[in-house]
Amino acid sequence: MELQYLLQLAANGIVIGSVYALLAIGLSLIFGILGVVNFAHGEFYMLGATATYALVALLGLDYWVSIVLVMLVAAAIGIALHDLFLKRIGRHEFERSMLLTLGLAMILQNGALAIWGADPKFVRVPALSGLISPFEVRIPLTRAAAFAAAIAGLFGLIYLLHRTRLGQAMRAVASNPTAASVVGIPANLIARATVAVGLAMCGLAGAALAPIYTVHPLMGTLFVFKAFAIVIIGGMGSLSGAAIVAFALGIVESTVGAYVSLSTTEGIVFAVMIAVLLFRPLGLFGRGLRV
Amino acid sequence: MNETGARPRRLELGIGAAAAALLYLLPTAGFSDYVMAVATSACAYCILAVGLNLVYGYTGLLSLGQVAFWGLGAYVAALAAVDLKWSIWAGVLVGGVIAGISGIAVAFSSLRLSRHAFAIVTLIFALLMQLIARDWSEVTRGPLGIPALPQPTLDLPGLGRFVFDTPARYYVLMLTLALASIVVVYSIVHSRIGRALVAIRDNEALAESQGMNTLHYKLLAVGVSAALAGLAGGLYVFHLSVVDPSIFDFAYTEATVIMVIVGGPGCFWAVIASSIGFSILPEALRVTDRVRYVLYGAILVAAMLVMPKGIGGLLQQRRIAAMRPRPGQGGT
């Protein structure tokens, strides 16, 4: 019985962890390739969830079609974000990038509050109203769907980074921008593609979690801070480190959170992050390269 | 580049002293309580902005956690007054010291990695403080906070007891702390230490190669600004007469950052002017908080794209350009 309960909690944690991974990897990718810490990452996640609400609940579109649409729109917004703002910021202007995206986050979050109000909205997907119960662990279909979508996104990302020319170019720019430009990789186009991919992951994360959580203008704020913590604990610039920490965080939050309050768990996460910096300044999976 | 030497220091101090005297006379002008409350909060913001300017403008470390030190000072002072029955002044002082020490601790842990980690860790520290304030309800009373804080009183020998009970009287108190902070930060940035901080900001490797222990200077800057924020928070909370977890609201950080950015990081007087301006602006505009923060966000984005050195930086560039024999490019 007790084991059953723990498995149940772990299953929930893995689902949330997969979505954390989407957000943290997007953040890490944008940081690795553009040197930009995207403060507005959580707000784009919030916009993804809000767009899903609009498509599914208001327009009555199919959930899976909506996810694809949201990702496409998010990618387009990513291109605009890069061309309008991030392009103008140099790789080493860290503070400038952080303040610029902080300004964008303020506009998006408070704009969303001003337009839609603070009431939480619910996305109901009739097709996902049941349960599946592998090994007696009961998982709502909405969570199973979110997990499937997030895992598809993660594998898509791995395929992109390791099996395509674009992904190779992205990794080249991340590891050595000067050498990459010497061999003729167009840094500007790669950066634009990176922001598009990162934001598509935000859109996917928002769409995946919209039917599980309520949709709300402030939902992204805590998420972006958690994504920061994940990226730091995992080691800045280490994508696999971010993914591992994201899953671990989801599981820990879900299991520990069942016994103590959720905000205590969040407090523990942030304290762990400071402790990791103190004892392993490069993160648990850092590449040994100072950023 | 620093402002030192560009203009006679004595004139600067004279204008400053005259302005301070005028500000002390403000309560006698018969303004309403509302105006005096705005002036009081302007003093509090001024302390936060001057402290952030020391850390970000002069030392080049972006702290997004000034609100953590501000709130920490507020909670320590409030708890000392309510639970320990300490005098308010002692509580405020201890709050400032604890805020300063925690600032040094946060800086020490994160600066080992990089200034990037410093920005993110200060931010996370502020969130952590808010979570603790909300959750550690045995001590902090949880989300509802501690209401009905006492009013500060001062026993003057021969003059009797003075109670800071009206906004005008509180303004005098806040103004005194603001002026003291300005004097402290002014003397730091115009001393050998200040030049060391600017050297660290402009080229840390070079500063280190000259035998400077850069970490000590950075810790000093963070510690002083955190202590000032803690003192300001501790004093301000008795004006609010209640302390709850919203004292750690990220909006305070956003407002302070905007004041420093628009004023011009590393420009002493411009940041003070912009902190006063941005404290009055929302009252003058009379828009909702939401619209105000959308505007603030737009200002921040525009400032980052067009003038990352702020208005003070633009003026300084002009002055430097005017000093050159032929038009060249501005200072860095």
Q: Notable features of this structure?
A:
heterodimer; A: 291 residues; mainly alpha; ABC transporter involved in vitamin B12 uptake, BtuC; two-stranded antiparallel sheet; 11 helices; globular; B: 332 residues; 2 strands
Question: How are the secondary structure elements laid out?
Answer:
The complex is a heterodimer of chains A (291) and B (332).
Chain A: H1 2-34, H2 41-58, H3 63-84, H4 94-116, E1 131-132, E2 139-140, H5 141-163, H6 165-175, H7 177-182, H8 187-209, H9 219-234, H10 239-256, H11 262-279
Antiparallel strand pairs in A: 1-2
Chain B: H1 9-25, H2 33-58, H3 66-82, H4 88-111, H5 115-135, H6 137-140, E1 153-156, E2 160-163, H7 167-189, H8 192-202, H9 204-209, H10 214-240, H11 250-263, H12 268-285, H13 289-306, H14 310-323
Antiparallel strand pairs in B: 1-2
Helix pairs in contact in B: 2-7, 2-10, 2-11, 2-12, 3-4, 3-5, 3-10, 4-5, 4-10, 7-10, 8-10, 11-12, 11-13, 11-14
